[in-house]
Prior knowledge:
By secondary structure, the chain is of the alpha+beta class. The chain has helices spanning 19-25, 32-45, 77-83, 134-143, 185-191, 198-201; strands spanning 51-58, 63-70, 112-120, 126-132, 149-152, 163-171, 204-206.
Amino acid sequence: MVAKTAQTNTRRVRAHIDRSMLIKHTDGFGDFVDAMREVVWNAVDGHAQRIEIRFERANAGKTIHIHTSDDGEGVTDEGMEAIASMDYSPSAADASKRGRKGNGSKGFIHHAKYLRVLTRRSAESVLWSIQYTADELITFWEEGGADWNHQPVLVGCAIKTTGTITSWLDVGQGPIANSKHERTAQRLVDELGQSLPLAVTRLVTVI
């Protein structure tokens, strides 16, 4: 006896997300200082006691990367999902935390080509990482997930115990980044503290 194959009247298609929605949900981070302030608040939400913002020049000075390092607890499992999501944050139910929507980490799209996050968590001997562009983030949503990679912690790791390094790579580049927008260490020194509580400002060093 040959079993008949059930036939359906359905067709599976990819559900696309337009880039304009990503831009709309992050339009409050179009200013450099506003966007960097959200990176700092993410570190504070992770219980950081030290936050360092470092400007790195590469490619004979033609390329700028900005690395924000902290000594917080590292990115939780829920936080890993939030970094790859829009309008989702594990902090939403915690009134003591600033990151309530989960969209601040995506503010990089207005200022750089890539976001890279490295994190090390307590009691783990691995370094977790994810890196993406705005278009790659949209692909994550279309495909229903994103991959964090991990590798053993090596001698000389920049994160000594626990913490996170959030990097904006190729600053001033990317499809919607205005290359003429002022993104300098001096501007951060001059303006960042004006929009942060003094207790937070004291945790931040810009170099």
